[in-house]
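Table S2 (text version). Query chain:
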Amino acid sequence: MGSYELQFKFNDDKTSLLVAFKKENAESLAISANWIIEQLNEKGYGKLQVEEKGIEKLVAKLNAASANADSICIAKKKDAEVEIFVPRDKMSAHLTITPPKGGKPASLEIVKQKLTEKGIRYGFITSAIKAAIIEGKADNLMIAEGEPVINGKNSQFICTVPEMKIRTPQVAENGNVDYRDLGEITIVHTDDELMKRKPATPGKASKNVFGEIVNPKPGKDIPFASGLNGVKPSPEDPNILIATETGQPIIVENGVSVENTMSVPQVNLKSGNIVFDGSVVIEGDVENGMKVNATGDINVQGMVEGALLDAGGDIVIDGAVIGRGDVRDKNGKLNEETAKLNAKGSISAKFVENACLKAGNSIFIQDWVIKSELEAYNEIIVGKKDSKKGQIIGGSTKSGILIKAMNIGSHAGVPTLIQVGGTSTVNPPNDQLRREINELTVSLKQIHKTLAGLRNNPIKQAKEMHEKALRSKNQMEDDLKGLKLKYISIVKDKKRAENVRIVVEKTIFAASTVSVGVAEKKIMEDLGARSFILREGKLVQVSE
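Corresponding structure-token output:
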């Protein structure tokens, strides 16, 4: 290969490298493109951009054993390439610098020129541009950024009620944790602030890298939801919801409602005890040891097991009420695992066992009452009309007017106490009370006369006597009012006593005890359908 002498030189504008050669002898040699490139590197022209077609032409001539060749361009000087790319959103500009090959490097002036040609004039990142020029290369480097568009926000709804979604177990003073007591249910009252509405915002205009204004998308103005219960806009600010009644706040989409009925899936360790100012609906069961306290009604769509229910209204149990163990221990104290239901209104359930039920009105049980204590002010009815079920077995059942069941007691001779009425309803002290009312009425008339005589008397002693008499008059009026209310209550009780009875529609079994008022009878043998009533102070059986 040493038979050829390659001679390199630049053209007149110093941009293209030309090569010439001269053949030294006639020896046939194989020349390759790689040998030519090696020669370029050895001569210090390796940084130039190789012209492949020129190399191919030179190799062809050399291998053709040409005697010589002149001015074949095999490499060129190439300046750095600067490219600017702008995405479709026009919010940024990106720089790519391809390093030079023997030519001029990129400069700040060139980059500025390219930016001007693109029309970019906003949001330059000068530090990034300078760093790329110093390094001499860049790959899609962001060198300009528009101001971000700030779109408007939709109306926002902010709850101002203390959040009780995460209810935590309560720790007692002794450090014990009651996992049934998870804290109070959130209750709001009339005029309490519940939710604030923040109106939609228009957003903020911005600029892209071309300096063009970019308008934001305004937020959607959303009003409070329609049909919200127990709330209204505040008279002072229509963007604030306030409560119109007492109840539990329920957050809904774009608003909040106040429900005076609380609904829970079930009452267990997970839900915690329920204390609510209103009515409570329980879709499942109330498990052992749990408590439900409501100022309104309590409706349990499942069963109650060894729990305590206390209602200011009615208690309705779709299923059974079942406690664990006997209602009372050997000392007569209520068993802690006894199911206990207290209602100021009425109580109804399908089945009752080992439970203690007290109602301010009446108690209605569909099927059986077993080893339980029932007490109602008016009536207790066990069994539905035309049903074969309806039996009271064991325990005690007491009411003010009526106890009615299909069967009382059992073939096994379980002691069963049935009691209606009381001593105050049977023998009310009407005569004594009437005398007290009459005497007080006469005294009150006399003191009114005394007051009339002293009212206009100018004597100092008369004035003192008038004040003393006035105090006596006021006390007498209060006493008389109390006596009259007591008398009215006794009259009502007497009328109730006239209707007091125990009704057995099929059988009352031996070992049962029936009590009407002060009269009592122990059943010594099984008896058929009959009623037990009171006549002239004596218990009388009436066949049905």
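Notes on Table S2: Residues 460-497 form the longest helix (38 residues). Helices lie at 33-42, 52-63, 108-118, 126-135, 423-426, 430-454, 460-497.
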